[in-house]
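We emphasize that the prediction below concerns an isolated chain of 338 residues; any contacts that depend on oligomerization or on bound cofactors are therefore not represented. The input was used exactly as deposited, without trimming of termini.
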Amino acid sequence: MQKRTLVGKNLSELKQLSQELGMPAFAGKQMCEWVYQKRVTDFSDMTNISKQNREKLSKECEVGVVAPMHQVVSSDGTEKYLFRLHDGHTIETVYIPDRERATLCVSSQVGCKMNCLFCMTGKQGFQRNLTPAEIMNQILAVPHSEQLTNIVFMGMGEPTDNLDSVLTVIDILTASWGMAWSPKRITLSTVGIRKGVKRFLDESKCHLAVSLHAPDGRRARYMPAEKAFPISDMIAMLREYDFSHQRRLSFEYIMLRGVNDSLEDAAKLSELLKGLDCRVNLIRYHAIPGISLQSSSDAVIEAFRDELNKRGVVATIRASRGEDVSAACGMLASQKGE
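Result of the prediction step, given as a token string:
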């Protein structure tokens, strides 16, 4: 008999589980506290639950925190973890320490349907969505779990293509019965699936990052999703929301040599984003096998940033982290451990 897993369940689900096992409903809240706040992985440590009910839980359930099967450390301190899932699939998760910040980049799918040209994850195709348990496990099972300050849904997969699971995890992270994080500590990155982004904005208060990468129709050459979800429609929708207070809107822009990095491109980009309260993160391209694209030079990236800033668009250059262990933007894949 396969045991039921506590990790990934919200308060109402754990209350229901309690009642199904003949336990009082308030035991659901107790389990939330033990699993998400006190990080307990053994039922015998859940001391405010009766011994009889702890034994029942131990027989019928498992906490469900499973350690990564493999870990590599970059020369810059970035750490990449490989998790094996119950069906043999694998996913990657990246820990990025940066002075007082400790960010975890989590995956939401095995593979990805979006097939962006510059992304390794898209090259492996799409296998399946991750469950809330599989997403939460990345957060709870990494070695530095209790030191994390930020979560970014920027790993493998398109988060708005698995939004039910992602929103469940955000609920666990931010609810008082869960980990009680501020939504400001969480960012979701998307290619811009309009329906999913709208639901995310309406049902959460977390930050949004939109993958842009070209200021016009050329985007479709590198991001097939542009054909179904034009960036112009996405930006029109974003203008309906207020990003001037707590929630932050950013656009990710991979700098590709001779493709999207001219000052004319910067002018087009500033016109596209005119009036939006946002920032642009410029990202160096990280080479992946079989793709002939190259990154813009540092000088070109700096000139592009300066042109955007001159035109009133806040732009920054994101530091590249973990490239030597294939942990940087666009480099994650389901790689089997040895």
